[in-house]
Amino acid sequence: MKSILQNIALLSSILLIASCDSGGGGGVADIGVSLPTPTNGATGSAVKGVISGGNITVTDASGADISLASGTTTNADGSYRLIFTQAEIDAGITAPLIVTISGGNGATMVCDIDNANTTDDCPVGDGTFAAFGTSYTLPADFQLSGIISEIPADNPNADPVVNINVNPATDLAAAFAKAAAGTSALTATDVTTATTAVLGLIQQITGVNLAGQDLNAITIPNIADNTAGASDLGLALASFAAAIIADQGANESVSAAIARIKASVSVDANGNITGTGTNLGRIASAVAKALAVVNEKSGGTNAAIANAISNANSNAATLTNQGDSVAVIAKPPAPGSTEPADLTKTLVGSISDVITNIVATTGAAGFGVTGAGETEVFATELEAVRLLTSADATAAFNLLDAAAKDAFASGGATDTDATDGVTGTLAVEGGVVTVTDATATSGNVTITVASGTSNGDTFEITGVTM
Fold first, then answer.
1. Fewest C-beta in 10 Å: which of 189, 191, 242, 261?
2. First to last CA, the chain
3. Is the CB of residue 186 less than 8 Å from the CB of residue 148?
4. What angle do CA 126, 128, 134 make, to 5 degrees?
Protein backbone atom coordinates (compact mmCIF):
# COMPACT_ATOMS: atom_id res chain seq x y z
CA MET A 1 0.00 0.00 0.00
CA LYS A 2 1.17 3.61 -0.55
CA SER A 3 2.22 5.24 2.66
CA ILE A 4 1.44 8.81 3.73
CA LEU A 5 5.14 9.69 3.19
CA GLN A 6 4.92 8.44 -0.41
CA ASN A 7 1.88 10.61 -1.01
CA ILE A 8 3.65 13.67 0.50
CA ALA A 9 6.68 13.02 -1.71
CA LEU A 10 4.44 12.82 -4.78
CA LEU A 11 2.71 16.11 -3.88
CA SER A 12 6.07 17.83 -3.23
CA SER A 13 7.42 16.80 -6.63
CA ILE A 14 4.32 18.14 -8.39
CA LEU A 15 4.58 21.49 -6.58
CA LEU A 16 8.30 21.68 -7.38
CA ILE A 17 7.60 21.26 -11.08
CA ALA A 18 4.88 23.90 -10.93
CA SER A 19 7.19 26.44 -9.21
CA CYS A 20 9.77 26.07 -11.98
CA ASP A 21 7.41 27.44 -14.66
CA SER A 22 9.52 29.45 -17.15
CA GLY A 23 6.75 31.90 -17.98
CA GLY A 24 7.76 34.28 -15.20
CA GLY A 25 5.48 35.86 -12.71
CA GLY A 26 6.35 33.63 -9.78
CA GLY A 27 4.85 30.30 -10.83
CA VAL A 28 1.44 28.87 -11.62
CA ALA A 29 -1.51 29.45 -9.29
CA ASP A 30 -4.52 27.19 -8.48
CA ILE A 31 -2.96 23.82 -9.24
CA GLY A 32 -5.37 20.97 -8.36
CA VAL A 33 -3.68 17.81 -7.07
CA SER A 34 -5.56 14.52 -6.64
CA LEU A 35 -3.85 12.09 -4.34
CA PRO A 36 -4.15 8.39 -5.22
CA THR A 37 -7.31 6.81 -3.83
CA PRO A 38 -6.56 3.98 -1.39
CA THR A 39 -7.49 0.64 -2.87
CA ASN A 40 -7.28 -1.58 0.19
CA GLY A 41 -10.56 -3.38 0.58
CA ALA A 42 -12.54 -6.45 -0.42
CA THR A 43 -14.35 -7.89 -3.41
CA GLY A 44 -16.80 -10.73 -3.75
CA SER A 45 -20.32 -11.69 -4.76
CA ALA A 46 -23.56 -12.01 -2.83
CA VAL A 47 -25.65 -14.91 -4.05
CA LYS A 48 -28.67 -16.50 -2.50
CA GLY A 49 -30.24 -15.75 -5.57
CA VAL A 50 -28.32 -12.81 -6.73
CA ILE A 51 -28.62 -9.93 -4.25
CA SER A 52 -28.75 -6.44 -5.78
CA GLY A 53 -28.51 -3.23 -3.77
CA GLY A 54 -27.70 -5.08 -0.56
CA ASN A 55 -26.18 -2.91 2.15
CA ILE A 56 -22.60 -3.87 3.05
CA THR A 57 -20.93 -3.70 6.44
CA VAL A 58 -17.58 -5.14 7.55
CA THR A 59 -16.41 -6.11 11.02
CA ASP A 60 -13.01 -7.16 12.30
CA ALA A 61 -11.93 -9.99 14.61
CA SER A 62 -13.33 -8.26 17.69
CA GLY A 63 -16.64 -7.45 16.01
CA ALA A 64 -15.88 -3.75 15.58
CA ASP A 65 -17.19 -2.03 12.45
CA ILE A 66 -14.64 -1.12 9.78
CA SER A 67 -15.47 2.21 8.10
CA LEU A 68 -15.73 2.18 4.30
CA ALA A 69 -14.66 4.85 1.85
CA SER A 70 -16.78 3.38 -0.95
CA GLY A 71 -18.64 0.28 -2.08
CA THR A 72 -21.43 0.15 0.48
CA THR A 73 -23.96 -1.71 -1.70
CA THR A 74 -23.87 -4.72 -4.02
CA ASN A 75 -24.13 -4.31 -7.79
CA ALA A 76 -26.95 -5.56 -10.00
CA ASP A 77 -25.15 -8.88 -10.54
CA GLY A 78 -24.50 -9.35 -6.81
CA SER A 79 -20.83 -8.39 -7.05
CA TYR A 80 -19.25 -5.78 -4.84
CA ARG A 81 -15.96 -3.95 -4.35
CA LEU A 82 -15.46 -1.98 -1.20
CA ILE A 83 -12.62 0.25 -0.10
CA PHE A 84 -11.56 0.79 3.50
CA THR A 85 -10.92 4.36 4.63
CA GLN A 86 -7.31 5.48 4.84
CA ALA A 87 -7.71 5.99 8.59
CA GLU A 88 -8.69 2.32 9.01
CA ILE A 89 -5.78 1.21 6.84
CA ASP A 90 -3.29 3.32 8.79
CA ALA A 91 -4.66 2.11 12.13
CA GLY A 92 -4.40 -1.52 11.05
CA ILE A 93 -7.19 -3.97 10.38
CA THR A 94 -7.29 -7.21 12.37
CA ALA A 95 -8.55 -10.36 10.64
CA PRO A 96 -10.65 -12.48 10.56
CA LEU A 97 -13.06 -10.23 8.70
CA ILE A 98 -16.82 -10.68 8.27
CA VAL A 99 -18.70 -9.00 5.41
CA THR A 100 -22.47 -8.78 5.96
CA ILE A 101 -25.07 -8.03 3.29
CA SER A 102 -28.35 -6.63 4.65
CA GLY A 103 -31.80 -6.02 3.22
CA GLY A 104 -33.89 -2.88 3.33
CA ASN A 105 -33.52 0.34 1.31
CA GLY A 106 -34.75 -1.36 -1.86
CA ALA A 107 -32.37 -4.37 -1.80
CA THR A 108 -33.66 -7.21 -3.99
CA MET A 109 -32.95 -10.91 -4.54
CA VAL A 110 -33.49 -13.15 -7.57
CA CYS A 111 -35.83 -16.11 -7.02
CA ASP A 112 -33.73 -19.26 -7.55
CA ILE A 113 -36.25 -22.07 -6.99
CA ASP A 114 -38.62 -23.22 -9.71
CA ASN A 115 -41.80 -25.11 -8.84
CA ALA A 116 -42.90 -26.68 -12.13
CA ASN A 117 -46.00 -25.26 -13.84
CA THR A 118 -46.61 -22.54 -11.26
CA THR A 119 -45.43 -19.04 -10.40
CA ASP A 120 -45.63 -19.83 -6.67
CA ASP A 121 -41.89 -20.31 -6.51
CA CYS A 122 -40.31 -18.10 -3.84
CA PRO A 123 -42.35 -17.10 -0.77
CA VAL A 124 -42.01 -13.36 -0.18
CA GLY A 125 -43.10 -13.79 3.44
CA ASP A 126 -46.45 -12.02 3.28
CA GLY A 127 -48.41 -14.81 1.64
CA THR A 128 -47.41 -13.81 -1.90
CA PHE A 129 -44.83 -15.40 -4.18
CA ALA A 130 -42.19 -14.39 -6.72
CA ALA A 131 -41.70 -16.35 -9.92
CA PHE A 132 -38.43 -18.11 -10.74
CA GLY A 133 -35.90 -15.71 -12.22
CA THR A 134 -37.66 -12.54 -11.06
CA SER A 135 -36.40 -10.19 -8.35
CA TYR A 136 -38.27 -9.35 -5.18
CA THR A 137 -37.63 -6.99 -2.27
CA LEU A 138 -35.68 -8.28 0.70
CA PRO A 139 -36.99 -7.59 4.20
CA ALA A 140 -35.10 -5.08 6.35
CA ASP A 141 -34.05 -7.84 8.80
CA PHE A 142 -32.39 -9.91 6.06
CA GLN A 143 -28.70 -10.61 6.65
CA LEU A 144 -26.16 -12.89 5.05
CA SER A 145 -22.45 -13.00 5.91
CA GLY A 146 -19.15 -14.10 4.44
CA ILE A 147 -15.90 -14.62 6.32
CA ILE A 148 -12.15 -14.80 5.74
CA SER A 149 -9.47 -15.85 8.19
CA GLU A 150 -6.52 -13.76 7.01
CA ILE A 151 -5.64 -10.62 5.03
CA PRO A 152 -2.98 -11.27 2.38
CA ALA A 153 0.49 -9.93 3.14
CA ASP A 154 1.40 -6.58 1.60
CA ASN A 155 2.48 -6.79 -2.02
CA PRO A 156 4.99 -4.08 -2.98
CA ASN A 157 3.38 -3.89 -6.43
CA ALA A 158 -0.28 -3.79 -5.38
CA ASP A 159 -2.48 -3.02 -2.41
CA PRO A 160 -4.06 -6.07 -0.76
CA VAL A 161 -7.67 -6.76 -1.70
CA VAL A 162 -9.33 -9.79 -0.16
CA ASN A 163 -12.07 -11.84 -1.80
CA ILE A 164 -15.00 -12.61 0.50
CA ASN A 165 -18.05 -14.26 -1.05
CA VAL A 166 -21.41 -14.07 0.70
CA ASN A 167 -23.91 -16.92 0.40
CA PRO A 168 -25.76 -19.35 2.70
CA ALA A 169 -22.69 -21.62 2.96
CA THR A 170 -20.40 -18.78 4.07
CA ASP A 171 -23.17 -17.43 6.31
CA LEU A 172 -23.38 -20.78 8.09
CA ALA A 173 -19.59 -20.84 8.44
CA ALA A 174 -19.60 -17.31 9.91
CA ALA A 175 -22.26 -18.36 12.44
CA PHE A 176 -20.25 -21.43 13.45
CA ALA A 177 -17.05 -19.37 13.80
CA LYS A 178 -18.75 -16.74 15.97
CA ALA A 179 -20.29 -19.46 18.14
CA ALA A 180 -16.85 -21.03 18.65
CA ALA A 181 -15.29 -17.68 19.58
CA GLY A 182 -18.05 -16.80 22.03
CA THR A 183 -17.15 -13.56 23.77
CA SER A 184 -13.52 -13.74 22.61
CA ALA A 185 -12.08 -12.32 19.39
CA LEU A 186 -12.38 -14.49 16.29
CA THR A 187 -9.32 -16.52 15.36
CA ALA A 188 -8.15 -18.04 12.09
CA THR A 189 -8.66 -21.48 13.67
CA ASP A 190 -12.31 -20.64 14.40
CA VAL A 191 -12.82 -19.76 10.74
CA THR A 192 -10.96 -22.78 9.35
CA THR A 193 -12.86 -25.22 11.58
CA ALA A 194 -16.19 -23.63 10.66
CA THR A 195 -15.65 -23.50 6.90
CA THR A 196 -14.33 -27.06 6.83
CA ALA A 197 -17.42 -28.28 8.67
CA VAL A 198 -19.73 -26.55 6.18
CA LEU A 199 -17.82 -28.05 3.25
CA GLY A 200 -18.26 -31.45 4.90
CA LEU A 201 -22.02 -30.94 5.18
CA ILE A 202 -22.40 -30.02 1.50
CA GLN A 203 -20.07 -32.82 0.42
CA GLN A 204 -22.00 -35.42 2.43
CA ILE A 205 -25.34 -34.30 0.99
CA THR A 206 -24.29 -33.87 -2.65
CA GLY A 207 -21.39 -36.29 -2.96
CA VAL A 208 -19.33 -33.56 -4.68
CA ASN A 209 -15.76 -33.72 -3.39
CA LEU A 210 -15.06 -30.46 -1.51
CA ALA A 211 -12.07 -31.62 0.54
CA GLY A 212 -9.40 -28.93 0.78
CA GLN A 213 -11.49 -26.32 -1.05
CA ASP A 214 -11.72 -22.64 -0.13
CA LEU A 215 -15.31 -21.36 0.14
CA ASN A 216 -14.19 -17.92 -1.06
CA ALA A 217 -12.53 -19.35 -4.16
CA ILE A 218 -15.64 -21.12 -5.50
CA THR A 219 -17.68 -19.06 -7.96
CA ILE A 220 -21.43 -19.60 -7.59
CA PRO A 221 -23.42 -19.22 -10.83
CA ASN A 222 -26.77 -17.50 -11.09
CA ILE A 223 -28.89 -20.60 -11.75
CA ALA A 224 -31.84 -18.40 -12.73
CA ASP A 225 -29.79 -17.06 -15.65
CA ASN A 226 -27.02 -19.28 -16.97
CA THR A 227 -25.02 -22.19 -15.59
CA ALA A 228 -22.87 -22.72 -18.69
CA GLY A 229 -19.26 -23.31 -17.73
CA ALA A 230 -20.01 -23.51 -14.01
CA SER A 231 -17.93 -26.00 -12.05
CA ASP A 232 -19.44 -28.92 -10.15
CA LEU A 233 -18.26 -27.18 -6.98
CA GLY A 234 -20.08 -23.99 -7.93
CA LEU A 235 -23.26 -25.86 -8.81
CA ALA A 236 -23.16 -27.72 -5.48
CA LEU A 237 -22.89 -24.42 -3.58
CA ALA A 238 -25.58 -22.84 -5.77
CA SER A 239 -27.89 -25.73 -4.87
CA PHE A 240 -27.14 -25.31 -1.16
CA ALA A 241 -27.97 -21.60 -1.53
CA ALA A 242 -31.23 -22.29 -3.36
CA ALA A 243 -32.15 -24.91 -0.75
CA ILE A 244 -32.96 -22.09 1.68
CA ILE A 245 -35.96 -21.15 -0.46
CA ALA A 246 -36.79 -24.80 -1.17
CA ASP A 247 -37.19 -25.28 2.60
CA GLN A 248 -39.01 -21.98 3.21
CA GLY A 249 -42.59 -22.03 4.48
CA ALA A 250 -45.33 -20.29 2.47
CA ASN A 251 -45.76 -17.55 5.08
CA GLU A 252 -42.18 -17.62 6.37
CA SER A 253 -39.73 -14.84 5.50
CA VAL A 254 -36.39 -15.75 3.98
CA SER A 255 -34.75 -14.23 7.07
CA ALA A 256 -36.70 -16.59 9.34
CA ALA A 257 -35.87 -19.59 7.14
CA ILE A 258 -32.13 -18.83 7.26
CA ALA A 259 -32.23 -18.33 11.03
CA ARG A 260 -34.16 -21.58 11.53
CA ILE A 261 -31.74 -23.64 9.46
CA LYS A 262 -28.70 -22.14 11.21
CA ALA A 263 -30.22 -22.89 14.61
CA SER A 264 -30.88 -26.53 13.66
CA VAL A 265 -27.22 -27.54 13.27
CA SER A 266 -23.97 -26.99 15.16
CA VAL A 267 -20.30 -28.02 15.16
CA ASP A 268 -18.97 -30.38 17.82
CA ALA A 269 -15.55 -30.35 19.50
CA ASN A 270 -14.10 -32.47 16.67
CA GLY A 271 -15.22 -30.08 13.95
CA ASN A 272 -18.10 -32.25 12.71
CA ILE A 273 -21.64 -31.09 11.92
CA THR A 274 -24.28 -32.33 14.37
CA GLY A 275 -28.05 -32.11 14.38
CA THR A 276 -31.09 -34.33 14.66
CA GLY A 277 -31.77 -36.72 11.82
CA THR A 278 -35.02 -34.87 11.16
CA ASN A 279 -33.36 -31.47 10.76
CA LEU A 280 -30.43 -32.69 8.68
CA GLY A 281 -32.77 -34.80 6.56
CA ARG A 282 -34.88 -31.71 5.90
CA ILE A 283 -31.80 -29.83 4.70
CA ALA A 284 -30.81 -32.74 2.44
CA SER A 285 -34.34 -32.88 0.95
CA ALA A 286 -34.22 -29.15 0.20
CA VAL A 287 -30.81 -29.51 -1.46
CA ALA A 288 -32.17 -32.39 -3.59
CA LYS A 289 -35.01 -30.15 -4.79
CA ALA A 290 -32.58 -27.35 -5.59
CA LEU A 291 -30.27 -29.75 -7.42
CA ALA A 292 -33.20 -30.83 -9.60
CA VAL A 293 -33.68 -27.19 -10.62
CA VAL A 294 -29.96 -26.85 -11.37
CA ASN A 295 -30.08 -30.06 -13.41
CA GLU A 296 -33.03 -28.84 -15.46
CA LYS A 297 -31.60 -25.39 -16.10
CA SER A 298 -28.24 -26.82 -17.15
CA GLY A 299 -29.82 -29.12 -19.74
CA GLY A 300 -29.88 -32.31 -17.68
CA THR A 301 -26.56 -33.54 -19.10
CA ASN A 302 -24.29 -33.11 -16.08
CA ALA A 303 -23.52 -36.55 -14.66
CA ALA A 304 -22.12 -35.09 -11.44
CA ILE A 305 -25.37 -33.23 -10.74
CA ALA A 306 -27.46 -36.31 -11.55
CA ASN A 307 -25.32 -38.25 -9.10
CA ALA A 308 -25.67 -35.44 -6.54
CA ILE A 309 -29.48 -35.60 -6.78
CA SER A 310 -29.42 -39.34 -6.07
CA ASN A 311 -26.95 -38.80 -3.24
CA ALA A 312 -29.03 -36.03 -1.67
CA ASN A 313 -32.25 -38.06 -1.81
CA SER A 314 -30.48 -41.08 -0.28
CA ASN A 315 -29.05 -38.93 2.52
CA ALA A 316 -32.43 -37.34 3.12
CA ALA A 317 -34.07 -40.76 3.57
CA THR A 318 -31.32 -42.10 5.81
CA LEU A 319 -31.16 -39.02 8.02
CA THR A 320 -34.92 -38.65 8.30
CA ASN A 321 -35.15 -42.25 9.54
CA GLN A 322 -33.02 -41.24 12.51
CA GLY A 323 -35.75 -38.90 13.70
CA ASP A 324 -34.79 -37.00 16.82
CA SER A 325 -31.58 -39.00 17.31
CA VAL A 326 -28.41 -36.96 16.89
CA ALA A 327 -26.65 -37.46 13.56
CA VAL A 328 -23.02 -36.54 12.91
CA ILE A 329 -21.64 -35.49 9.51
CA ALA A 330 -17.88 -35.76 9.44
CA LYS A 331 -15.66 -32.99 8.11
CA PRO A 332 -13.83 -33.72 4.83
CA PRO A 333 -10.35 -35.25 5.01
CA ALA A 334 -7.48 -32.84 5.41
CA PRO A 335 -5.44 -32.75 2.16
CA GLY A 336 -2.32 -34.88 2.50
CA SER A 337 -3.35 -36.28 5.87
CA THR A 338 -2.17 -39.80 6.73
CA GLU A 339 -4.67 -40.27 9.56
CA PRO A 340 -6.60 -43.53 9.06
CA ALA A 341 -9.99 -41.79 9.11
CA ASP A 342 -8.87 -39.23 6.53
CA LEU A 343 -7.37 -41.92 4.30
CA THR A 344 -10.68 -43.81 4.40
CA LYS A 345 -12.64 -40.67 3.55
CA THR A 346 -10.28 -39.99 0.63
CA LEU A 347 -10.73 -43.56 -0.66
CA VAL A 348 -14.51 -43.33 -0.52
CA GLY A 349 -14.42 -39.97 -2.29
CA SER A 350 -12.19 -41.41 -5.01
CA ILE A 351 -14.57 -44.34 -5.53
CA SER A 352 -17.48 -41.93 -5.85
CA ASP A 353 -15.57 -39.88 -8.44
CA VAL A 354 -14.75 -43.02 -10.45
CA ILE A 355 -18.39 -44.13 -10.49
CA THR A 356 -19.51 -40.68 -11.65
CA ASN A 357 -16.93 -40.66 -14.45
CA ILE A 358 -17.92 -44.16 -15.60
CA VAL A 359 -21.58 -43.16 -15.79
CA ALA A 360 -20.68 -40.03 -17.74
CA THR A 361 -18.39 -41.71 -20.28
CA THR A 362 -19.44 -45.34 -20.79
CA GLY A 363 -23.02 -45.80 -19.67
CA ALA A 364 -23.84 -49.02 -17.90
CA ALA A 365 -25.39 -51.61 -20.13
CA GLY A 366 -25.24 -55.39 -20.45
CA PHE A 367 -23.45 -56.56 -17.32
CA GLY A 368 -23.90 -60.23 -16.47
CA VAL A 369 -27.19 -62.10 -16.77
CA THR A 370 -29.26 -59.26 -15.35
CA GLY A 371 -28.31 -56.81 -18.08
CA ALA A 372 -27.37 -54.25 -15.45
CA GLY A 373 -24.29 -52.15 -15.90
CA GLU A 374 -21.15 -52.36 -13.79
CA THR A 375 -22.04 -49.22 -11.90
CA GLU A 376 -25.53 -50.48 -11.08
CA VAL A 377 -24.14 -53.75 -9.72
CA PHE A 378 -21.58 -51.95 -7.62
CA ALA A 379 -24.17 -49.46 -6.42
CA THR A 380 -26.50 -52.32 -5.45
CA GLU A 381 -23.78 -53.92 -3.36
CA LEU A 382 -22.97 -50.62 -1.67
CA GLU A 383 -26.65 -50.08 -0.95
CA ALA A 384 -26.86 -53.51 0.70
CA VAL A 385 -23.96 -52.59 2.96
CA ARG A 386 -25.47 -49.18 3.69
CA LEU A 387 -28.77 -50.72 4.77
CA LEU A 388 -26.99 -52.86 7.35
CA THR A 389 -24.98 -49.97 8.72
CA SER A 390 -27.37 -47.09 8.25
CA ALA A 391 -29.83 -45.25 10.41
CA ASP A 392 -32.45 -47.94 9.62
CA ALA A 393 -30.54 -50.41 11.78
CA THR A 394 -30.10 -47.84 14.53
CA ALA A 395 -33.77 -46.91 14.41
CA ALA A 396 -34.82 -50.57 14.61
CA PHE A 397 -32.64 -51.15 17.66
CA ASN A 398 -34.01 -47.97 19.23
CA LEU A 399 -37.53 -49.38 18.84
CA LEU A 400 -36.52 -52.48 20.78
CA ASP A 401 -34.81 -50.39 23.44
CA ALA A 402 -37.87 -48.15 23.81
CA ALA A 403 -40.19 -51.16 24.14
CA ALA A 404 -37.97 -52.63 26.86
CA LYS A 405 -37.93 -49.32 28.75
CA ASP A 406 -41.72 -49.06 28.46
CA ALA A 407 -42.09 -52.55 29.90
CA PHE A 408 -39.69 -51.72 32.73
CA ALA A 409 -41.58 -48.53 33.52
CA SER A 410 -44.94 -50.33 33.58
CA GLY A 411 -43.60 -53.03 35.88
CA GLY A 412 -45.63 -55.76 34.22
CA ALA A 413 -45.54 -58.23 31.36
CA THR A 414 -46.05 -56.76 27.91
CA ASP A 415 -46.96 -58.61 24.72
CA THR A 416 -46.17 -56.31 21.84
CA ASP A 417 -48.46 -56.33 18.83
CA ALA A 418 -46.37 -54.47 16.21
CA THR A 419 -48.20 -51.17 16.77
CA ASP A 420 -44.89 -49.78 18.01
CA GLY A 421 -42.85 -51.54 15.32
CA VAL A 422 -41.91 -54.39 17.69
CA THR A 423 -43.26 -57.93 18.02
CA GLY A 424 -42.38 -60.53 20.63
CA THR A 425 -42.64 -60.92 24.39
CA LEU A 426 -41.19 -58.62 27.03
CA ALA A 427 -41.73 -59.82 30.60
CA VAL A 428 -40.79 -58.01 33.82
CA GLU A 429 -39.67 -59.91 36.88
CA GLY A 430 -37.49 -58.82 39.79
CA GLY A 431 -36.81 -55.43 38.26
CA VAL A 432 -35.45 -56.95 35.03
CA VAL A 433 -37.10 -57.01 31.60
CA THR A 434 -36.61 -60.28 29.71
CA VAL A 435 -36.98 -60.10 25.94
CA THR A 436 -37.77 -63.28 23.99
CA ASP A 437 -37.94 -63.71 20.20
CA ALA A 438 -38.51 -60.01 19.54
CA THR A 439 -38.27 -58.28 16.18
CA ALA A 440 -38.21 -54.61 15.19
CA THR A 441 -38.44 -53.11 11.70
CA SER A 442 -37.42 -49.70 10.42
CA GLY A 443 -37.26 -48.91 6.73
CA ASN A 444 -35.54 -51.81 4.99
CA VAL A 445 -33.93 -53.34 8.10
CA THR A 446 -35.47 -55.90 10.44
CA ILE A 447 -33.62 -56.88 13.62
CA THR A 448 -34.48 -60.17 15.34
CA VAL A 449 -33.38 -60.76 18.94
CA ALA A 450 -33.49 -64.27 20.40
CA SER A 451 -33.15 -63.06 23.97
CA GLY A 452 -32.17 -60.00 25.96
CA THR A 453 -32.46 -58.20 29.28
CA SER A 454 -32.92 -54.60 30.35
CA ASN A 455 -32.77 -52.91 33.75
CA GLY A 456 -34.33 -49.73 32.39
CA ASP A 457 -30.93 -48.31 31.55
CA THR A 458 -28.66 -50.95 29.98
CA PHE A 459 -30.11 -53.18 27.26
CA GLU A 460 -28.17 -56.39 26.52
CA ILE A 461 -29.23 -58.66 23.66
CA THR A 462 -28.00 -61.97 22.20
CA GLY A 463 -28.80 -63.99 19.11
CA VAL A 464 -29.17 -60.93 16.90
CA THR A 465 -29.81 -61.21 13.15
CA MET A 466 -30.54 -58.50 10.54
1. 189
2. 67
3. no
4. 120
